[in-house]
Amino acid sequence: MRKTNDNGDIIITDNAYITAKDGGKHNGKYVNALKWKDNQVNKAYNSYVYQVELHHDKIAHPERYIENWNQKPLNKQIWSLEKWRKDALRNAQEASIMLGILRERGIIK
């Protein structure tokens, strides 16, 4: 399930963590991350959050990231925006997993 805020930005929820822990999508990431040290999980979490924010900015301001954005064919623009949306969603899901692990370990509430 995808959750967005009022701006349409993808937000991090517990859904991906629960799904991964229950053996669903991203279960391999969950199982592997369980073996990591706390600081590694925290670093991964921060990295995923940064990537979500970066991709939201790319969607909001594509001209900052692609030269001559306004001259690109519409289908290329749509492709880029959709790719960034999927990347933001994937990174939000992986951030959810890391956050869930940190909560499991009592590192954060």
What is this structure's SSE topology?
Blueprint: H1 15-21, H2 27-33, H3 38-60, H4 74-104
Helix pairs in contact: 1-2, 1-4, 3-4
Give keywords:
109 residues, mainly alpha, 4 helices, elongated
Structural features, described:
The chain has four helices and no strands. α3 runs antiparallel to α4 (74-104). 62% of the residues lie in helices and 0% in strands. It is mainly alpha-helical and 109 residues long.
In a few lines, what is going on in this structure?
With 109 residues, the protein is an all-alpha fold. The chain has helices spanning 15-21, 27-33, 38-60, 74-104.
Shape label: elongated
SSE series: HHHH
Specify the biggest β-sheet: none
Task: Assess the beta-strand content as a share of residues.
Answer: under 5%
Estimated structural class: mainly alpha
Overall mean pLDDT: 90
Number of strands: 0
Q: How far is the N terminus from the C terminus?
A: 22 Å
Low-confidence stretches: none
* Integer-rounded radius of gyration: 16 Å
Number of DSSP helical runs: 4
Helix fraction, binned, reads: 55-70%
